Amino acid sequence: MGSQAPRELLFRSFASKDMTKLTLSQYYTAGRHLLKHRNSDSKAGASAFRLTAGFLYRELPVRISQTISGLKQSPSPYKLREVSQFKTLMTDYAEDFSLLVDQTPEPKAPESNEQFVDTLRKLKRKYRFNMWTLAEGLRSLSAAVNAKDPAVVPPFLLPTAKPQKGELQPHYLSSTLAYPDLSAPMAYLAPSGEMEMTDPAKWSTLSAAGAVPLRPSPGPLPSTAEAAAAAATHLAAPQQWSPNRVCSEFCDEASCRNPRLWITDGTRRCAENQTRRFFDWLYSMNLGTQLLIEDHVAIHDFGHNLVQIIQPLQIANRAARDARAICEQHYGFSAPLVKIIAPMPAVTTTYVPHYLYSMLFQLLKNALRATVENHKHRGPLGFPVVKLVMSSGEEDVAFKVSDEGGGIPLSQVDAIWSYLGTTAPAGGSSSSINSSSSDVAEDVSEAMSADPSDSAKRKAVKDSALSSITFMNRTAGMPLFGVCEGLPMTRQIARYFGGDLDLVSMEGVGTDAYLHLSRSRNAVEHTNDLRTMLEPSAPSVHSESAAKGAAT
């Protein structure tokens, strides 16, 4: 494939294509069909594997090339290329692309199909390392941002570029930080303190003529009288962008529109929102690519597919037991009890077993830690119970993890979804969580997905992979405290097939985490193509077109 076109043109060709997004039903149906013909020498069996392998051979380069391009064109204002782990990631992805398109023939015959499967095995091992590298890169980026490292942090986000206390920033005083259509009137907070509506005609004409300053003059906040006088002549301009503005008119982040943040560190928060949006996309791209690879390898090598009809309660029990084991290992005393409430215990749904395990394990681990930290004075016998409630509706299977761990301050709720933070103690090592948790998740997946007819193999896999002793050995160095990608990554996993994760917290009491799994087997992979991901960070197209129209 690589010899038929120059490398750059070939790469751009793949990166410009749209991904083929699959549904849970397609994964499950195709997997069962392949398993049916796995040990068959019939033409139908060979044709089934050839068709699936051919699809992967065409689809994987598209996803990998878009991932590389996304890393190069990241909408995050931080200089990701200056972080060594992200440099390594781009190199590794480029090697993966080359391995597929240059060194692996199209799987049209049995021999080439085996060679293609061997390539997938290599990619499977590499993608686990890539996820570890990505997590390490986030920690390095977070450290650089916190240290205000000028090699990574752009000048307008450094302390010297931040407005002085008391400086008026009308950009933060708008009722909405950004809106998609400048031709529509919008409410905004005028200097008088009253809510007013913009006049699109004045905005377009005066901004085009340069009458609207990009940045207000520094100085103290005006008095009430001065503000009232200014309001009489003040142009309704809810957006006064400076050339290095992080947000654009496309920004739709809820936290950017939060009135509590208008006269705080708005620029930094906008930067974090753009960064979070990018890493949400990057993680979802990795999830989809890894699932395609691992599902095919699991069918070919182990005789089970990853998308299964599962019993969520069984996985919930396992996650609760293992989370308590980690808590007890970390603190050295008995962990709080986890009470599981399931009005419909036999409910089933179609999902990826180790995805559900990973999410519940993360939520329970957080709840147990918060409970212990908030009630240490009571001792192990006085810990409140952590509750895990499972319910089944027509649209979803839902879980609620409730703790009495003291809750989260309102001002910090948005920060829990940031990739640029961590709850790990300073100086603590958290690298082991990636290798350990991925191994555990793989074992859970294999145990939950083993062929039900092969009871001996299923029991052997369960005894080996899921016993407490094996789990403790695998997670000997796994920290109880969350790392920066914990909750954001958990939410991305939940959203990937139409679910979601929400947190409701009451400071001084505790937190409720709501995890939803869509019951629709037609839920398609939730990830954007590269063009869609980059659109929100594009230049101010709407304002530019409005200005040009006014000028003519």
Please provide a written account of the structure.
The protein has 552 residues and is of the alpha+beta class. Helices cover 49% and strands 8% of the residues. It is built from 17 helices and nine strands. It has helices at residues 7-15, 24-36, 43-72, 84-101, 110-146, 170-173, 200-208, 224-233, 266-302, 312-331, 353-374, 432-449, 455-466, 468-474, 486-496, 530-534, 541-551; strands at residues 187-189, 195-197, 308-310, 338-341, 349-351, 386-392, 396-402, 500-506, 510-518. The strands form three sheets. It has a five-stranded mixed beta sheet with strand order 4-6-7-9-8, with helices on one face. Strand 8 (500-506) and strand 9 (510-518) form a beta hairpin. It is globular. 40% of the residues are buried. Mean pLDDT is 73; it is low at 162-184, 203-264, 422-453, 457-484 and 536-552.
Layout of secondary structure:
Elements (H helix, E strand, L loop, with lengths): L6 H9 L8 H13 L6 H30 L11 H18 L8 H37 L23 H4 L13 E3 L5 E3 L2 H9 L15 H10 L32 H37 L5 E3 L1 H20 L6 E4 L7 E3 L1 H22 L11 E7 L3 E7 L29 H18 L5 H12 L1 H7 L11 H11 L3 E7 L3 E9 L11 H5 L6 H11 L1
Parallel strand pairs: 4-6
Antiparallel strand pairs: 1-2, 3-5, 6-7, 7-9, 8-9
Helix pairs in contact: 1-3, 2-3, 2-9, 3-4, 3-5, 3-9, 4-5, 5-9, 7-17, 9-15, 10-11, 11-12, 11-15, 12-13
Residue stretches low in confidence (pLDDT < 50, at least 5 long) are 162-184, 203-264, 422-453, 457-484, 536-552
Main sheet: which strands, in order across? 4-6-7-9-8
**Relative strand content:** 5-15%
Task: Give average pLDDT, whole number.
Answer: 73
Shape: globular
CA-atom Rg in angstroms: 26 Å
Element order, helices and strands? HHHHHHEEHHHEHEEHEEHHHHEEHH
